[in-house]
Amino acid sequence: MQVLLLGGHGKIALHLTPLLLKRAWNVTSVIRNPDHESEILALGKGLKGNIKVLVSSLDDVKSASDAQKIIDTVTPDYVVWSAGAGGKGGPSRTIAIDQEAAKHFLTASFATPSVSKFLMISYLGSRRNQPSWMPDDEWAGIVKTNTEVLPTYAKAKQEADEYMTALAAVRKRDPTRPFQAINLRPGLLTDQPATRKVELGITGKGRGSVTREDVAIVADGLLARADVEGWIDLVNGEEGVEEAVERVARERVDAVVGEDVEAMVKRFFP
Questions:
Q1: Is pLDDT of 87 > 90?
Q2: Which CATH number characterizes residue 80's domain?
Q3: Closest Cα to residue 230, out of 194, 196, 256?
Q4: For the chain, first and last CA: distance in Å?
């Protein structure tokens, strides 16, 4: 498999890259700073897959055609969005990267026949409605984050997530062109070593945390399957990663429950 990894020097991507290479998949890691190229290439040492680096700034992706040029250069089977402004450059850059550039890559990926899978690393609180499984106090924490702590980030992620969900819903109308749209939604990210113990799929822990390494391990597991899609929430918990991924696939878990998918489709594709 050829994987296009956007945001290749991010902490999650640095954990994810060698996991994908161990599968004998080839990874093209998109980074902005050429000084990081040697660090990325070193991740492939001794592993089965090939690692390439594409130096290209997502700040320059102003349209779907800009994203398409990158996709056409790589010709990936899978696209992974692990990018973000990271709070640098103020609200306008957060909207430009986390919302607009993400949407441009989604548009281009869904339009590219060779691309069959898109995994977006999003955020647990990126939703409009309190889900039935989440206690009031946990939901209140999400609302506070979305409205007071990180309002621009929350708005950008929600827009990108809903656009992805709408695209996936429209694509399902054409069974001849299957597409896996996976929206992985971790809680508060930490830099602790992986625990390999998670609460995956649906969680009431609106303010729960998860290590970046565990996010990468889960993303790797999801990408390797042909039977998972939709919104998949993630925090650290008590279930082993492999068992959790298997359960989510078997039970067809999708945390989009409670959100109005048809309204998303009508908003983007009236």
A1: no
A2: 3.40.50.720
A3: 256
A4: 35
Helices (H), the chain: 11-22, 37-42, 64-74, 90-94, 102-111, 136-144, 151-171, 212-223, 241-250, 261-268
Summarize pLDDT for 157-192 with one digit per residue, the tens: 999 999 999 999 999 999 898 999 999 999 999 999
| pLDDT (average), residues 83-111 | 95
Q: Which domain holds residue 160?
A: 2-268
> What pLDDT digit, counting tens, does each position of 12-45 carry?
999 999 999 999 999 999 999 999 999 999 999 9
Per the structure, how many domains does the chain have? 1
- Cβ density class 180-214: b for 16+ within 10 Å, e for less: bbbbbbbbbbeeeebbbebbbbbbebbbbebbbbb
- Take residue 99 and report the two structure tokens written for it: 């919302």
Name residue, tokens 């890259």: 17
Locate 118 and state its tokens.
């898109």
The amino acid at residue 216 is: A
Tokens of 33: 């700073």
Between CA 170 and CA 189 the distance in angstroms is 32
DSSP 55: E
